UniProtKB/TrEMBL annotation, chain A:
The keyword Transport does not apply. It comes from Thermocoleostomius sinensis A174. This is CRISPR-associated endoribonuclease Cas2. PANTHER family: CRISPR-ASSOCIATED ENDORIBONUCLEASE CAS2, CRISPR-ASSOCIATED ENDORIBONUCLEASE CAS2 3. Pfam families: CRISPR_Cas2. CRISPR (clustered regularly interspaced short palindromic repeat), is an adaptive immune system that provides protection against mobile genetic elements (viruses, transposable elements and conjugative plasmids). CRISPR clusters contain sequences complementary to antecedent mobile elements and target invading nucleic acids. CRISPR clusters are transcribed and processed into CRISPR RNA (crRNA). Functions as a ssRNA-specific endoribonuclease. Involved in the integration of spacer DNA into the CRISPR cassette. CDD domains: Cas2_I_II_III (cd09725). Mg(2+) binds at D10. Its cofactor is Mg(2+). Homodimer, forms a heterotetramer with a Cas1 homodimer.
Automatic annotation (TrEMBL), chain B:
GO terms for biological process: defense response to virus; maintenance of CRISPR repeat elements. Keywords: Antiviral defense, DNA-binding, Endonuclease, Hydrolase, Magnesium, Manganese, Metal-binding, Nuclease. NCBIfam families: cas1 (TIGR00287). InterPro entries: Cas1 (IPR050646), CRISPR-assoc_Cas1 (IPR002729), CRISPR-assoc_Cas1_C (IPR042206), CRISPR-assoc_Cas1_N (IPR042211). The keyword Metal-binding applies. The gene is cas1. Its cofactor is Mg(2+); Mn(2+). Its EC number is 3.1.-.-. CRISPR (clustered regularly interspaced short palindromic repeat), is an adaptive immune system that provides protection against mobile genetic elements (viruses, transposable elements and conjugative plasmids). CRISPR clusters contain spacers, sequences complementary to antecedent mobile elements, and target invading nucleic acids. CRISPR clusters are transcribed and processed into CRISPR RNA (crRNA). Acts as a dsDNA endonuclease. Involved in the integration of spacer DNA into the CRISPR cassette. GO terms for molecular function: DNA binding; endonuclease activity; hydrolase activity; metal ion binding. The keyword Plastid does not apply. This is CRISPR-associated endonuclease Cas1.
Length: 94, 336
């Protein structure tokens, strides 16, 4: 089952913030400056968090939140002024 | 969920960070592993061993095709399977139930072939006499085919199927402009572009149906109509019959009608015999086949809307239930 997570963060330090954003961009879709949509299942998200994202953060100063979105929630999302929530393509021919 | 086709020789695929990195001609593209449910690999593509292990471990179906579109093989990781279905399948070979099932699948194919011709017949308002005649002829055969009060033999099924196929393919030419030179079905090798498309498309469909057979718990090599010819995935051929017109023939018609493919997309085979689909043509055709497979249609047995590829799986599961319960309540999937 595929899932989508909405992940957002506040990172106090520029260097840490850039590093985190770069790592998140590898598996997520950036939708705003500090907001990402991540098409991962729970295990995948946890793996990314523990292996790649949390080590960058200093949780005394920074924070990160991940909200799950299921199929129905995703359809009810309201979006103005930016692309609609990320949908994987049906097929890719390379 | 995404289907990824890797068609270009020289492509390399690597794994990093839950992503596949596909490199070709100095360009690279990243795809999220979590979104993939099927990867189709044409000859000449290199998958790193790490990619292979992740495909296996994450249960991403991976198919390998030959240059001519035929099935070459697939990756098989450990998977959930139900031996009960396979045992029931073995028991039904050469039984009246097996033959009735074969008849049912063939009947459904002919019905779908007729539905395609009927569409053309409506477009042309019945002005093409030959087309109208074939539509009626196929209708007559399907009614004869349907009568289940008498047991049927494999030869009888084969006979009716053969006649229907011949007249169907001859009448199919009324879908195509004359300069495509299509007059009927020929293969091994195909001698005109439309036949090249059909052959290639049936190969791709067979590969997809192979996966469906495994997912539904079957042994792909033991069938009911095509039965037990060695070295041939007989059940795959049986179960794909009703989907040939639905997926492949419709895709060919759509491409020719939209003009997305032209005779320049084909080339003579290297040995001079027959005609092949070129590299770009293959990509275009795969995209059209995918559009047909992802098309969402009403699936009456469950009264919900499913994509054609999901319907293929549901039909196969239904066959499985018939075999286990020894009761033929199967109904073919029909084009409207």
């Amino acid at each position: 089952m595929s899932h989508l997570w909405l992940v957002c963060y506040d990172v106090a330090n520029n260097k840490r913030r850039q590093k985190l954003a770069k790592r998140m961009e590898r598996v997520c879709q950036r939708v705003q400056e500090s907001v990402f949509e991540c098409p991962l299942d729970e295990a995948g998200l946890t793996e990314q968090l523990e292996r790649f994202w949390l080590p960058v953060l200093d949780v005394r100063e920074d924070s990160l939140r991940a909200y799950p979105m299921d199929g129905r929630t995703k359809q009810r999302v309201k979006v103005y002024g930016s692309p609609p929530p990320y949908e994987p393509p049906d097929f890719v021919i390379l | 969920m995404t289907t990824l086709y890797l068609t270009e020789p020289g492509t390399t695929v690597q794994y990093q960070n839950n992503n596949l990195t596909v490199k070709q001609n100095n360009q690279s593209r990243c795809l999220r592993m979590a979104e993939l449910d099927l990867v189709v690999v044409m000859p000449g593509v290199q998958l790193s061993s790490v990619v292979l292990s992740h495909l296996l471990d994450q249960g991403v179906e991976t198919l390998f095709l030959k240059q001519n579109g035929q099935f070459r093989g697939r990756l098989q990781g450990s998977f959930a399977t139900n031996p009960e279905i396979r045992l029931a399948q073995y028991r039904c070979v050469d039984t009246p139930l097996g033959l009735d099932l074969a008849r049912s699948l063939m009947l459904s194919k002919v019905r779908n072939q007729r539905a395609l011709l009927q569409r053309r017949n409506r477009d042309t308002q019945g002005r093409i006499t030959e087309l109208t005649e074939v539509v009626d002829l196929l209708a007559a055969y399907t009614t004869g085919f349907q009568r289940i009060d008498t047991p049927i033999t494999r030869n009888a099924i084969m006979g009716i199927e053969g006649i229907c196929a011949r007249v169907y393919y001859q009448a199919l030419r009324h879908w195509f402009p004359e300069d495509w030179g299509f007059t009927g079905r020929n293969r091994q090798p195909p001698r005109d572009p439309i036949n090249a498309l059909l052959s290639w498309g049936y190969g791709v469909l067979a590969s997809r149906m192979f996966v469906v057979c495994v997912q539904a718990g079957f042994d792909p090599y033991i069938g009911f109509f095509h039965a037990i010819e060695p070295y041939r995935p007989n059940l795959v051929l049986d179960l794909m019959e009703e989907f040939r017109p639905v997926v492949v023939d419709q895709a060919v018609i759509a491409m020719i009608q939209a003009g997305t493919i032209s005779p320049e997309d084909f080339e003579p085979a290297p040995d001079g015999e027959g005609i092949w689909l070129g590299a770009l043509g293959k990509k275009l055709f795969l995209a059209e086949l995918e559009r047909q497979l992802t098309k969402v249609l009403l699936y009456p047995p469950q009264d919900r809307r499913l994509s054609v590829s999901q319907i293929m799986l549901e039909q196969a599961r239904w066959v499985g239930r018939c075999l286990v319960s020894q009761n033929l309540d199967y109904e073919g999937f029909g084009l409207k």
